[in-house]
Amino acid sequence: MKQGICNMTDAPRLSVAPMMDWTDRHCRYFHRLMSRHALLYTEMVTAPAVIRGDRVRLLAFSPKEHPVAVQLGGSDPQELAEAARIAADYGYDEVNLNCGCPSDRVQSGSFGAVLMERPEVIADCVAAMIAAVDVPVTVKCRIGVDDQLPQEALPRVLQAVSDAGVTRFTVHARKAWLQGLSPKENRDVPPLDYDLVYAMKKAFPALHLSLNGGVETLEQAQAHLAAGMDGVMIGRAAYHRPADVLLDADRTIFGQGETRTAEDIALAMLPYIDTHLREGGRLNQITRHMLGLFQGRPGARGWRRHLSEKAHADGAGPEVVEEALGHVLDRAA
Asked: How many angstroms separate the CA atoms of 107 and 325, rounded?
């Protein structure tokens, strides 16, 4: 099954964040049509689920999604090593360890952001994962949790985990408050501290550091790269306004790319949709990720409404997308 084919040196300059319930295989295929080079991530999947669950459902993806990384959750080195080995055999180009998710479910399993308090555990986990696979093992983390001082917590994690062999980190430039804030609030309420992440790049110049948190445009991504960051990860903006973020990413961030339009992307999804339906899938499993394709443009409301109302119906097919596209084309005429 292994078929990684991409340049993982360049791809992390821009990545789309792993987002639960959002960045499934259909979303990633859709995003890949807009950017050939940006690094895409799976939703977080726990190591026990990979080992004992439905691997095909959790890990299968289209070869056209490369470069693509799997994000794992866990805190047991041997389980994570086994899950990493399985994911690498599926063909993923990178295995990422989640050390930033603040949800109650993750905390109860002693992984995610709570690991920021236990850098030695992260180090043991990544060492086992590195020994198990030939693809890069990376870490996504916060700048700290709860009452930790980020200027102390973050360098402690970077030092311990890089000593274990990790050379690439994505840092969400916010604390996670495990007590008192919901996972949703943790995405917005804790203040951003870009300067601390910049300082970490100066303190650890040999590490590849990507910045995450609050980045909504390619112009902002360029500014962070110009300030010395090695990469930028964009989350919700890439999902809700995919054309704004991804259509020009190859030219702007990677210096190469062809001109494509959102209309081109909608039409390019039709063969993929047709295949999915013939395999027994439903249209709305794909089109739910496409609702923001024309965000901010005339006809966007008609596009969203038509897909939202029609795509869930039994027997709904590619013609629903073509009809929805008509709302945009009619306004452009």
From this structure: 43
